[in-house]
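Ticket #248: bound-state structure for manganese (II) ion.
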Amino acid sequence: MIDFHCHLDLYPEPADIIRECSRRRMYVLSMTTTPSAWSMSSALAAGCDRIRTALGLHPQLAAERKSELSEFDRLLPETRYVGEVGLDGSPECSPFWRDQVEVFEHVLASCSAGGGRIISIHSRRAEGEVLSHLESYRQAGTMVLHWFSGSRQSLERAVGLGCWFSVGPSMLRTKKGRGLVESMPADRVLTESDGPFAKHDGCPVVPWDVQDAVLRLASMWRLSPGEAEERLLLNLRALLGSIRDGQT
Ligand code: MN
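RESOLUTION: The complex was predicted; output attached.
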């Protein structure tokens, strides 16, 4: 199983979650929300072959933490993965929209200068603006739009730009979400939990809850659950092959 977008360091007991992910031999990409959290967060998963930690600066923290952009640049050579980054157009985030844009542009420019990264991107209520930025920074790497919730039109635009998508159980539980996932190229889809932010029945989801997404994808793709897992693993391999710079 693959969880390509979660926040291991935000669980109350990350060590327990990491142990269970390892026991299940899961591939996990753990996000960070600030550059200063990266070192400790990646240390949590030290020695776990299938767990990687992305270097991020969450758009909701853009105003508060943009002073950490120099730390972002300092750490960037140490990882192939960037996230969570992006833009958030929700009313509570619009007062610092300019800080968000400044941070996102800085991140994309640094990734471009650094030869490209695999980037997990937040685009809530800002899909158009996110895609315009990705158009301007095509050298930034391979973009994975996490929990994409935009219009059918912006989805087509994202597909045209070569974006990938990580989709979770919460997204696949809604009719709109399923409609979007059905329109995504099956060879550019990965699973995600977005735990512990994402909740189900009031409880934070855990990485292995992606199993529910695998089952839903299987029926959507008219595959058996095993075949869907296989498809997702092939996708993961193709994605990792898209950035070859000798880093892990
Ligand atoms: Mn997230």
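RESOLUTION NOTES: Residues 5, 7, 31, 84, 194, 197 surround manganese (II) ion (CB under 6 Å).
TICKET STATUS: resolved
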